[in-house]
Amino acid sequence: MYYTKYTLLKFVLPLLLCVIMVIVPQSSLVHAQQFAFSLNPSQNHVIAKPGATIILPYILTNTGDPTVMKLQVYLLTSNDSTGSYELIPYNSDVPDFPQFTTSDVTLKIDEPFLISSREAVEFDLIMKSNENIAEGDYYFTLVAETEPTEGFGDTSSLILESGIGSNIYLSITKDGRLQTNGEITQFTVQPQYSFRFGNKEIAFFDSFEPVPVLLTVANKGKRVLQASGTITVQPKLNSETTVIPISKQYILANSQRLITGTSSESIKTSDSNTAILPGTFMGSYTAQANLQIGDDTEQSNVSIQYYVFPFTYTVAFILFMILFFLSSLILKSIKK
Length: 336
Description:
By secondary structure, the protein is of the alpha+beta class. It has two domains: 37-172, Sandwich (Immunoglobulin-like), CATH 2.60.40; 182-310, Immunoglobulin-like, CATH 2.60.40.10. The chain contains two helices and 21 strands. Strands 2, 4, 5, 7, 9 and 10 form a six-stranded mixed β-sheet that branches. It has a six-stranded mixed β-sheet with strand order 12-13-21-20-15-16, with no helix packed on it. The longest helix is centred in the first third of the chain and has 31 residues, at 2-32.
């Protein structure tokens, strides 16, 4: 019987080792190649007349392993209300639509090329608009993607699984003027507790609970617009102010976008929030959003108020006092 177990182990263990040696290296190979690229600038807004030729300089940098890549142009459309985009393959044969070429003969659209490790490639993207192109906005994304690729998922950051992209917002106008129409449609917090007092909803947070902030801007016009500014959080009984910078962000025509704040050591961001403020022990806070939207000369200002109260600590203290009182009564009855 011992011989039988030994024989099984003798053959089973090498078999398991072989399986591990086959599976583990292959799974490692999938993630072994370091993907570290950047394409700058990350976005361009171009205002041009029909028939104009636009030259956009780019720098593609590889800080990872040598990789075979290619440049592709995609149509860019708004996918939802949070600012995520959908990329659609662009057909340059569409009549009266812009045509794309590059200035580098070794770096052509839809042709593979090798970029070495720690190499920075400078090139110009040449965009030629037709004389008959209609006035309006056209949105594209220049993507440097790896070869081979399995395609893209929707994303708002355009740092893609198999490539990295740079948005191009092209506004065609004969007189060079753009009329924008944007506004703040949502500025609020997501509280754990809320109470309605008349027509006003009062937001409460427990002590040291993070405070998610939502800021949404809608573009009600027919032209792309940009929004930038700050969110300021001021405690009522304290002069210490928290300022969240909001870098320039574009909102496509007839769409809205969840604005993303700039993260820091204390301020976090996510795909579903503008910013996540650190929790405090107790207090009353006023948050104010100050945004420059489109070509408006005046800033748009919206403010909200929320409160932080130690609910958990209060309940724990009450329970402790009840237990202390009951314990005292029990001890007194035992002594009697």
